[in-house]
Amino acid sequence: MNLLELQGVQTHIGAYHILHGVDLQVPKGELTMLLGRNGAGKSTTLRTIMGLWHASQGSVRFAGRDITQLSTPQIAGLGIAYVPETMGIFADLTVKENMLLAARAARNAQDMDDMRLKWIFRLFPAVEKFWNHPAGKLSGGQKQMLAVSRAIVEPRELLIIDEPSKGLAPAIINNMIDAFGELKAAGVTILLVEQNIHFAQRLGDTVAVMDNGRVMHAGSMAEFSADTQLQQRLLGLAL
């Protein structure tokens, strides 16, 4: 069963035609990798799913519901969390205040789900360590951990993340891989845009490869990893 489906999605940004009929399926309970060269349309696809840009043609369906024309707050309210490539951290607020903003059901830090916070602290110890520090003072890796932590501070059905490993040290990438593995095991459906092939191979259940604003290939990650000729043709490199 697919939790998220895009059919024939076209997106224009001003005079630019970026997506040229994207067909994408994200199976429920699995981790789907969205791969492709720079400029292939991956980030635009994520932003279109979230309603930050609206599709000019085609449809976006979540849990069987057409969400193509919904606003971004409405889409988020359905249980979809989005972590952009820029991470969207509020630099002048503390880590705690960033988390509290994302925990919409909580009026103060004491109202946040204690068991869920302990789970997040175990996944990302830096979030607990720097709880009362300004988020702008964190390292790049710590900011990425905070961005993901905000996305999961309340239960979500779908987690959409744009290049979570970008610029991170290998040790932090491994920590991130472990965390996403736990999220997947907890039943969260995940859609990741990723350039780090090691990251993609270790985590992905299914894969979709984009080029020129279209999905050129979709299937299992294991089969894609084993087919070096297909990798070379679609990505210009072998895994």
Summarize the model shown.
By secondary structure, the chain is α/β, with parallel strands linked by helices.
Could you describe the 3D structure shown?
With 239 residues, the protein is of the alpha/beta class. The protein folds into two domains: 2-79 and 156-235, Rossmann fold; 90-154, no CATH class. It contains ten helices and ten strands. The mean pLDDT is 91. The strands form two sheets. A six-stranded mixed beta sheet has the order 6-7-8-3-9-10, sandwiched between helices. Helix 3 (95-102) packs parallel to helix 6. The longest helix has 16 residues, at 170-185. Strand 7 (158-162), helix 7 and strand 8 (189-193) form a beta-alpha-beta unit.
Topology summary:
Layout: E1 2-13, E2 16-27, E3 31-36, H1 42-49, E4 57-62, E5 65-66, H2 72-77, E6 80-83, H3 95-102, H4 114-123, H5 125-129, H6 140-152, E7 158-162, H7 170-185, E8 189-193, H8 197-203, E9 206-211, E10 214-220, H9 221-226, H10 228-235
Parallel strand pairs: 3-8, 3-9, 6-7, 7-8
Antiparallel strand pairs: 1-2, 1-4, 4-5, 9-10
Helix pairs in contact: 3-6
